[in-house]
């Protein structure tokens, strides 16, 4: 069941990426819910995702990147 949670988290983050504040809020919630290995996967995904969205770069501080 953890894999669907990771996929759901990515879907939510993609859908709120228009608003950096909302994105940060959802990212913080995800960090509390995901397992440690999923957080590592999320970090990798975030690095790639934020390349195209520089306005979200500041949100990476919540995952220690």
Which SSEs are present, and which pair or pack?
Layout: H1 2-15, H2 20-33, H3 36-49
Give a nutshell description of this structure.
The chain has 65 residues and is mostly helical. It contains three helices and no strands.
Features:
65 residues; mainly alpha; 3 helices; 65% helix
Describe it for me?
The chain is mainly α and 65 residues long. The protein contains three helices and no strands. It has helices at residues 2-15, 20-33, 36-49. Helix 1 packs antiparallel against helix 2 (20-33). The protein starts with a helix and ends in a 16-residue tail after the last helix. The relative contact order is 0.18.
Please trace the helix and strand order, writing H or E for each element.
Answer: HHH
Q: Roughly what percent helix? A: 55-70%
Major beta-sheet overview: none
Mean pLDDT level: 91
Radius of gyration: 11 Å
Q: End-to-end distance, in Å?
A: 27 Å
Number of helices: 3
The outline comes out as globular
- Note poorly predicted spans: none
Overall SS class: mainly alpha
By DSSP, the count of extended strands is 0
- Kindly estimate the percentage of residues that lie in beta strands according to DSSP: under 5%
